[in-house]
Amino acid sequence: MKEPQRPKYSFYGLGIAPRILEALDRMKFTIPTPIQHQAIPIEIEGKDLIGVAQTGTGKTLAFAIPIIQRLSWIKGRCLVITPTRELALQVDETFRKLAPLFSIKTVVIIGGAPMGPQLKALKKNPRVIIATPGRLIDHMNQRTVRLSDVDILVLDEADRMLDMGFLPDIKRILKVIPRERQTMLFSATIPGEIVKIAAAYMQLPVHVEVAPSGTAPEEIIQELFIVKKSDKNHLLAKLLDQYYGPILLFSRTKRGARRINKLLKGKGYKAAEIHSDRSLSQRRVALEGFKNGRYKILVATDIAARGIDVTGIELVINYDLPDDSEQYVHRIGRTGRAGHKGRAISFATPEQSKDVRNIEKIIKTALPISEHPDLPRERFIAHSEHQGKRNNRRKPQCHGKRRAKRTKRWS
User: Fold this and answer.
1) Cys bridge to 205: 48, 166, 197, 386, which one at CB 3.0-4.6 A?
2) To 5 degrees, how large is the angle CA 44–CA 49–CA 50?
3) pLDDT of residue 159 exceeding 60
4) Domain check: are 44 and 85 in the same one?
């Protein structure tokens, strides 16, 4: 009789306290993800760490477990800095699963929320402060938050914070936190600025990378449709008829997100929008409605690419390609989470061959091109031909025809 196959990893043997292990068992967390398995023992020892992993791989629990355990030993506090309000709330949700085990209080300090409840919570001496940079700076200016006893600092989604221009705020916050501390930096990619931060503000950090920086999850099936801008809505309608599960749709702009959401509602779809023009309460209602199935489609801008932690998203649609090619990985990482299969479909106009190539360089693979039988067949315009068309528009007196140079894929 064959012995049953054992899981490759277990939370046992990582140095986790028995009380936390019991809680993990009750929550049905039995097998750690690779980032959890590698990072937790290092963090429990109090070492600085740079964690690189794909989105949706359990990074929050990878630092929440060691932090709660270490706070039960020491008197100081932990500060977690996140780029977006939604991510801050989700990080707090994870901490609240473990913090009561040791009577540890948490507080969320984010913009768009009233200051009163935050001030009230801060007076209760929370051991874990989860904040976005801007609102934390507001509290620092008003001297309503004390950071002199921070022993543990987490910079979550650090690359996204740099993309959003938070580097000056982060440097200002780091100046008032004790230098003798444990620092954890988590990110999906490692741009040069993060390397500089690590060199300047961390002490011999251990580097843990469970997938090459920028790698797209293997569980996600990726497709690319080449479509004229005028045909995007037609293609979208055809695709929505094929998928019945939750769909996250990305627009490049806030205005575009509003327009798409209005279009979807006009066609009878249950949809909501989430972007920086929506209030915090509106964004929370939209996200909760998406989680509980009230809305089938959530239309978002890149502000939500790191802030939506929803298991079971069937499809991510990139209605517009992102301005920053690295955002592609973060967008599609909203599906195929926690070992589930997922699908990502992107729309590219014939003029966006360069944008697609930049994405393919990051994910280190070619995006498979699909065609829909009800739409005209399109191909990428070679860069020389596209440039020629732009020049012709600028100089209408020039009528000479240019011969387009095309590759096989772009012909």
Assistant:
1) 48
2) 145
3) yes
4) yes
